[in-house]
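Q: What does the assembled structure look like for these inputs?
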Amino acid sequence: MPAKKLSQSALALWVRKLIETRRVVAPQAKAEHFAYAPLSQAEDLRLDHDVTILPPRKYLMPPSEVLLRFTRKDGYTSVIEHEPMILFGVHPYDVAAIAQADRYFLHDRPDIHYQTRRRSITIVASDVQNASEDVFAACLGTATVHDGFDVLLTRVGDAYVIESRTPAGDALLALAQDLQEADPVSLGRREQVWEDAQKLLRRQVLKCNPQELPALLDAAREHPVWEKRSQTCFSCGSCVTVCPSCFCFDVEDELDPDLQSGTRRRQWDACLLSGFAVVAGGHNFRKRREERYRHRFYRKAKYLPERFGFMGCVGCGRCVKACTAGIANPVEVYNTLLEGAS
Amino acid sequence: MKKLRMAIFDFACCEGCQLQIVNMEEGLLDLLDIVEPVEWREAISDQSEEYDLAFVEGSITREEDEQRLKDIRQRARILVALGACAVNGGVNRLKNAPDMDEVRRCVYGNSATMPHLATAPTKAVGEVVKVDFEVRGCPMSRREFTYIVRCLAAATTPVVPTYPVCVECKLRETVCRYEFNEVCLGVVTRAGCNAPCPAGGQWCYGCRGLVDDPNVNGAKDIMDKYGKTVADLRSRMELFNSVEARQCQGQ
Ligand code: SF4
Ligand code: SF4
Ligand code: SF4
Ligand code: SF4
Ligand code: SF4
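A:
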C-alpha cells in the first residue's frame, strides 16, 4: 500500500480505535525514563521517547514463560502462551533486533513458543524523534529500517507519514479515518528524517567499519582492556538484561505444592552472571569476571557475525546506561582495541 | 509419600520469619500435605527426638545456645537456616563491637552482670554447625521457603539465585537508585526477593546478604563515579553485612 499521511489528531483517533480492538503495547513515561507497557489511552503514548528501559523483546520472549506442564503420572503437555498484540512505536534498531530473534528462533527448527507469539504480534515501527544520549545505531546501520515491520510511522512536522508493508499492517490502517495520500513534500521530508537519523543516532562514534570487528577481536584475546575494565564489574548482568540483541535463556522446573505435578519455565539468563557457565558437576568454564566480561563482546562482534553475518548489537546504547559501573559501553571497548591496533 | 518430619527452632531474633510461615494461610495447608510439624514452639506443643528437616531461625549469642544448636544438628537429617539472623547474623551482628562489656552495659544497664544476660558476640548458625540450605532475607522470603521445602520433599536440589538484585530491578524496569544519587547495595546483594525495595523507591540495604563473589572493591571504585565515599558504602552495609563492612577499608 502506498504511503499515507495522518494528522496528529487523526493519529490519536486511530490509536484509540486500535486500543478498542486489540491489546496495544507502547512506550510510556516511567520516572525519568520510558518503558513499554499496555496502552490504556492514546494520551499516554510517547512516540517522542528516546529509548525504553527494556527492549520490546519482553513481549516476544517474556522474562519468564511457561513451556509445559507435567505430572508424575501422565507426562507433559506443551503450553503455548500468546495473545494478539500490537507493538506500537518500535524504534528501527529494535525492529532490527527482532529480525535477529526471528533468525535464531524461526529458521531450521522453529521454536514453537516464539513462533506462535511472533505470529500474533503486529509491529508498528516509528522513526526516532529524539535520540538517546548513548545511541550509536547509525554506526551499525540500524538508525533506519526498511523491512521487518508491518507499519512504519514517521513524524514530518505536524503530521505523520504512515506506510503499511504487510496485510496485517493494511488491516490496521483500515481502522484509521482521514487517511490522505502522502504528498511529495511529506515524502521528501520523510527522506530527510531518514538522512538526519544517520547523524542523530550517532551520539557515540565507532571508529571503524563494523565488518572489521571480528578480525580486531581475533587478535585481542589477551588485550589488557578486559582485565582493566572488568575490575569493577559486579556480574550483575544488567548490560545483557536490557539488550535487545541478547536471547540467552535457562530452563527450570518447579513442582506444585502437591509434588505430583509442576511447571517448566524458560527464563532470561545473562552470560555476565557468575553462574551462567556452570555445568553439571559444578564446573564453571567462565569462572573469572574478566572472562565473562570479555565473552559478551566476542559473542556480539565476532561469533555471531561469523555465524550469521550480522552483529549481535544494534547500537541502542541501553547497556551504557544500565551498567552501574560504567564499563559496558561497546563503543569504548572497540575504540580502545582500535587504538592498540593502529 | 511419607511426610517429612519438620521442626522449627528459634534463637536470638524477632521471630518475624516464623511469622511468615504462620501467615501463609492456604499455603500453610499445602505445606502440611508434605511435612508434619513435630516440634514448633510457636504453633504446637509437641517435642520430638529427631527430625528430617530442622529450620533454625535467629542468631547464636549465648554459650548455652551453641550447645542447644549442636544438639539440634545431631537430631536433624537436613538443617536449614531461616532468615538473615540465622544465615549471616543479620542485624544482631551490629553488636559485635570489640568491647562486649560496653555492649552489655549499654543494653542492660544495671542488670548487665546478671548471668542469664551474659551475651557473647553474635554468630550465624553456620558458624556453629553445618548448614545444608539457607532461606535468605529479613524477613525470609515465603516463596523461597516453600520452594525449598518442596525441593527437599521431592529430593531435588533447590536452585536459588547467586546473582545480584540488579537483575530483578532490570526485569521490573525499576529506575536505578544510583540515578537518584543514592548508594544502593543491590550490586553486591544476592537476588531472590524480586527487588521490592528499589521498586518502592528505597535503596537495597542488603538483607539477603552478599553474593558469593561480591565485587566490594568494584563498589568502592564506583563511589567516586557517583560522588560518594567508601564511608557511605560502609554505613549502608553495617545493618546486615557488618562483617564485610568492617573489611571495607579506606575513605
Ligand atoms: S550491546 Fe548495548 S548497545 Fe548493543 S544492542 Fe545490546 S544494549 Fe544495545
Ligand atoms: S559490565 Fe556492567 S552491567 Fe554488565 S555485568 Fe558488569 S557491572 Fe553489570
Ligand atoms: S531475619 Fe529479620 S524477620 Fe527474620 S527473625 Fe531475623 S530480624 Fe526477624
Ligand atoms: S537500584 Fe540498586 S539493585 Fe536496582 S539496579 Fe540500581 S544498584 Fe542494582
Ligand atoms: S531489595 Fe535488598 S533490602 Fe530489599 S528485600 Fe531485596 S535484598 Fe532485602
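Chain A touches chain B at residues 30-33, 35, 53-54, 63, 231-238, 241-242, 252, 254-255, 257-259, 268, 270, 273-275, 289, 322, 324-326 (CB under 8 Å).
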